[in-house]
Amino acid sequence: MLAVATGGRRSWVVTAARQHDEVTSEGDVLTVSEAAEFLKIGRTQLYDAIARGEIPHRRIGRSIRLSRMALAAWLAAPAKKEA
């Protein structure tokens, strides 16, 4: 992260906010609702798949976040055969 030395804390905050906007504007990190819409399934169905460990995700406290890129890779991978 780059911050302008002459601006002190304010410059650091502005730089951090710009970097945050760049990351979130791409929509790479999704909420469960956004991921369900991306996958074209219901939220409950997505929560169930997460609970079974089928969907790549991360928990941050009580929140669940999903990576758009990880979901796309997961969709593109061959399906595992059930025994």
Protein model, in words:
By secondary structure, this protein is α+β, with helices and mostly antiparallel strands. It has a domain at 28-77: Arc Repressor Mutant, subunit A. The protein is 52% helix and 12% strand. The protein has helices at residues 9-25, 32-39, 43-51, 68-76; strands at 29-30, 58-60, 63-67. The chain has a 3-stranded antiparallel beta sheet with strand order 1-3-2. Strand 2 and strand 3 (63-67) form a beta hairpin. The longest helix is centred in the first third of the chain and has 17 residues, at 9-25. The protein is globular, with a radius of gyration of 17 Å. Mean pLDDT is 79; it is low at 1-5, 10-17 and 19-23.
Brief account:
This protein has 83 residues and is of the alpha+beta class.
SSE string: HEHHEEH
Which CATH class of the domain at 28-77 applies here? Mainly Alpha
What distance separates the N and C termini? 48 Å
Tally the helices.
Answer: 4
What structural class do helix, strand and pairing data support?
alpha+beta
Low-confidence stretches: 1-5, 10-17, 19-23
CATH fold node name of the domain at 28-77: Arc Repressor Mutant, subunit A
CATH architecture of the domain at 28-77: Orthogonal Bundle
**Quick one: overall form?**
globular
Number of strands: 3
The averaged pLDDT comes out at 79
Oligomeric state as shown = single chain
Share of helix, binned: 40-55%
**Strand line-up in the sheet with most strands:** 1-3-2
Strand content: 5-15%
Tell me about the largest β-sheet. 3 strands, antiparallel
Radius of gyration: 17 Å
